[in-house]
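Continuing the batch. This is chain 6 of the set; chains 1 through 5 are on the previous pages. Same settings as before, nothing changed between runs. Recording input and output for traceability.
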Amino acid sequence: MNLSRAIGDLTFKKNKRLSAKEQAVTAFPDVRVHTITPKSDFIVMGCDGIWESHTNQQTVDAIYMQMKRKVKIQKICDSWLDACCSPNVQRTMGKGCDNMSMILIDFRTGQN
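Output for chain 6:
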């Protein structure tokens, strides 16, 4: 959701051999479709800042561990966003300094 860059930053969109979707900066989202079933536990959505330092699997694993310990959804989001923040801007070369937002939806009935 690097929205301001997706709409602007035309200097990153000058490769005439690439479509608008393939440019270095694009407004096209990463969308995946999954069927929600009774076995579905949760879904996490977030802007690009939370994916800079952790993989999808690392994010899911960390969230799942906290859900198993019955940690409240708000606390899970707060702690994960804290974990994504750069501890040292120079060492991480700016990763973990981006805007970060996260939505966590718990599908487990009566759990949390």
